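My main concern about presentation is that the manuscript never shows what a single data entry looks like. An entry of this sort, consisting of the sequence and the corresponding backbone structure tokens, reads as follows:
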Amino acid sequence: MGLEIAYLLRGTQVTIELSLLAFAGGGVLGFTVALLRVLGGSDVTLVVKPLVDVVRGSPLLVQLLAVYLGSSVLGFSLNPLTAAFVGLSINAGAYLSEIIRGALTSVPKGQTEAGLAIGLSRMYVVWGIVLPQAFPVIVPAAMGFFISLVKDTSLAYVLGLLELTRAAKDIVDRTLDPFHTYVIVMLIYFALCYPLSVLVRVVDRQLQHKGLARERL
């Protein structure tokens, strides 16, 4: 059993690394898309919004397979880790862009109008006035999304990536003991996600107590 636990812990390490990488990639993409929609006006929104809707409205599993298998159609191939990173980052970027955009637009428009009226650039108004006020709204929502992302990494097993769920499948194939193996895997996911869910509530409560978070998305 010791070898099986070590194998699961190896998969857990990959799960954690993939979650952090995809969240970082999705954060950069999501922040960029949100700024484009806020600053770019209706023309940019007409182009970007359908792309976001397609990603949010289609299964993540299909997106991962499209990235992994579709890369060969374009003349190059991605290894399972890279394909999982790209697919999860795109998916995370779509959801995080809505979280960020919603937080930015929740700031009263009067502050934006006042900043523009005194001659500040629109970029400065968003970056220096709106974003600091939106940040306390973004943080709890983004942390909550990260918990979902950790669990979503389990879908990367279909690409052959040795993350936690794939490690469990390999063990089941060898030991023919699915019940105990998947119970252990369930407990590992719980150990990863439950402390984060507690942290989200603590952070949100602190922000509410300080009067920084005005509303929940």
User: Anything to note?
Assistant: The chain has a mean pLDDT of 91. The domain at 2-209 is CATH 1.10.3720.10 (MetI-like fold). The first helix runs from residue 2 to 56. The chain has one domain: 2-209.
